[in-house]
Write a structure and sequence with these properties.
By secondary structure, the protein is mainly alpha-helical. Helices cover 50% and strands 6% of the residues.
């Protein structure tokens, strides 16, 4: 009887522990030397930040306040706050709001609209599109660059302490909506769109903004704000610099920035790389891993709620959670079930169970592999054969690592590796296509041979990803997070389309890539016709409708959406399949994941085509 009672008590305590909102989660305790987001006692830590954000005194979300420039110096603002709190020891939300508005200007106050000198209303590529609707769509999207182009006012450089903005040497093209600053990986697809529009000078200036960050910080931060200083985003600077060079052929510029590009590469190798052991091999792999030990300032109240915190006397476990949240933001895909040890952990623990630091991402390691290939190209172009061969060697070694860590022979696809589970994550996420996108497949050419390609296409078909009328969702898990079903995103779409539609790909793969590009353009076109806006993300089930979920409402603009759409209009604009897709996009009915629709290639037919090829 006593044993039964003790067993009951033990089980009851276990149940209670599992049901606690945060403290019941079992976040791995790494030996992390925690840091603050930045050294600003207004924008990154301190009583003002805590009180304003926790009372939701201004704006629709936490980002609003930390984007507000100060009307006076930080010393004057701190003095004003001290006086205010003495006179109002228990201020109401309205009183706090009034104080903020008396001491801060609205977000965007330090920016001015800007018309780039190389913008033209009739870009050459648009004139080459025969279909009049698509041609007009291209012209309309080109016009949107003027809505997103900004230059910083001189007050930012003259009084930088009053702003959360980081100083920029050139004009910038912002994503749009609440995102009023430059973002690292967004810029890759924005630059691609600018180059399609013939805006090479603007694209080069935008890349030089990121170069200036590396020159100052030693790496590219997440975005152009002080509160982003201690985390980054997917490292695509080297590749966007090469894309600009290919258009400009400016070898002097390339030679000037080459050492800085190496510095950016080294940051990821030195600060985001760990060793893992698989099948007796020690392999070097990269992950997203910030050391932030406090809430993200732009998501302060949201992170505090996730941690179950009411004060800033954080426990070690809460600090570890903040580090995992910041690391998830560093991935650019904030947030997704991808950053959990399992989908079941997300279901039971919610965001408090996030374990981004445990995940070794396929796409991050593929991007680093691609960077090594592009650095080899850069130094070969500059006549530095020794450096070119060095990076080519790194590239080949990483090709082998990617195959060893991520490739699954049985399933015929790549998958993230989890260092806590010591296993791959076999759920579908669109960026798992990245080794093909980055030409980092372990072959001489870097792209799959026909047997491997066939395996990949069979896997993609088995997941039903070609059936969604609005494009491929980031994942097939409906979690309520924005980087999950049903949201379709420009970066993940472009990884798939670029991989499938390479000239070396089979006719079937190229057709599938063109079809996915058509779905993307058709959805963007339908949304633009209905709402007059380009959205940050779209719904895979209902073409033209904006996506949803996550920490903030849907945003319009939108930088990378414009860039990818312009890229596809340029490449596929005269292909019959894209024109047909645009016209018929609203007629396709979605039946949800797991079923084969009329727009999907039946599995049997796929096998026949693969056999013939």
């Amino acid at each position: 009887m006593i044993l039964l009672i003790l067993l009951f008590i033990a089980l009851r305590l276990l149940f209670l522990a599992q049901s606690l909102p945060f403290m019941g989660s079992s976040l791995k305790q790494e030996d992390i030397e925690f840091i603050l987001p930045c050294n600003s006692s207004i924008y990154c830590f301190g009583d003002i930040l805590f009180t304003v954000q926790m009372t939701h005194a201004v704006g629709n979300d936490s980002k609003y306040f930390v984007d507000m420039p100060m009307k006076h110096s930080p010393e004057v603002v701190h003095g004003s706050w001290a006086l205010f709190t003495r006179e109002n020891p228990h201020p109401t939300t309205d009183q706090i709001s009034d104080w903020v508005n008396a001491n801060f200007d609205p977000p965007g106050h330090g920016l001015a609209k800007w018309k780039p000198s190389d913008w033209r209303p009739d870009p050459d590529f648009a004139n080459d599109i025969s279909n009049k609707e698509l041609r007009q769509f291209a012209v309309d999207l080109n016009e949107i660059w003027l809505e997103l182009a900004r230059k910083q006012k001189s007050t930012i450089s003259k009084q930088p302490s009053r702003f959360s903005s980081l100083e920029l040497p050139n004009g910038v093209v912002i994503p749009g909506g609440r995102f009023r600053e430059i973002y690292y990986w967004d810029t890759y697809w924005i630059v691609e769109g600018l180059l399609v529009s013939g805006m090479t000078t603007t694209a080069k200036g935008v890349v030089d903004n990121l170069i200036s960050f590396v020159d100052y910080f030693g790496f590219v931060p997440n975005g152009g704000r002080k509160y982003y200083e201690n985390r980054s985003q997917p490292p695509l600077l080297i590749q966007m610099a090469w894309n600009v060079f290919e258009k400009t052929k400016d070898s002097k510029w390339l030679a000037k920035i080459a050492p800085i590009l190496e510095q950016e590469y080294s940051f990821w190798i030195n600060n985001r790389t760990i060793d893992i052991t698989l099948s007796g091999q020690t392999l070097s792999v990269a992950r997203y891993a910030t050391d932030l030990g406090s809430p993200r300032p732009e998501s302060f109240s949201e992170d505090m709620a996730t941690a179950g915190a009411s004060t800033t006397n954080f426990t070690q476990q809460q600090k570890t959670l903040f580090s995992n949240l910041g690391s998830g933001a560093e991935s650019g895909a904030d947030f997704s079930t991808r950053w959990f040890d399992s989908i079941q952990d997300y279901d039971s623990l919610g965001m408090s169970g996030i374990r981004t630091r445990d995940v070794v991402p396929v796409d991050l390691n593929s991007i680093l592999c691609g960077n090594e290939l592009f650095l080899s190209k850069i130094f070969n172009t500059l006549g530095d054969k020794r450096s070119s061969e060095k990076y080519l060697g790194y590239y080949k070694e990483r090709q082998r690592t990617i195959e060893a860590v991520f490739w699954d022979n049985e399933r015929g696809f790549w998958f993230d590796y989890n260092i806590n589970n010591k296993a791959r994550n076999y759920n579908f996420y669109a960026p798992f296509i990245a080794p093909w996108w980055q030409k980092c497949v372990n072959t001489e050419t870097g792209v799959p041979d026909r047997i491997t390609e066939n395996s990949i296409l069979q896997y993609l078909e088995s997941q039903g990803i070609f059936q969604f009328p609005g494009g491929v969702p980031y994942s097939l898990t409906r979690s309520g997070q924005q980087w999950d079903l049903p949201n379709v995103w420009a970066p993940a779409t472009d990884m798939l389309v670029t991989a499938l539609s390479r000239p070396t790909s089979s006719a079937l793969a190229r057709r599938l890539g063109a079809d996915l590009a058509g779905r993307w353009v058709g959805s963007a076109y339908k949304g633009f016709a209905k709402y007059g806006q380009m959205f940050e993300k779209y719904d895979c089930d209902t073409p033209g409708e904006p996506g949803g979920g996550g920490e903030y409402t849907q945003q319009v603009g939108f930088g990378w959406t414009n860039g990818v759409t312009l890229k596809y209009l340029d490449r596929f604009g005269n292909e019959k399949s894209l024109v047909t897709r645009m016209k018929n996009i609203g007629k396709i009915e979605s039946r949800g994941a797991g079923s084969i629709t009329s727009v999907s290639i039946p599995v049997f037919s796929l096998f026949i085509i693969l056999f013939i090829l």
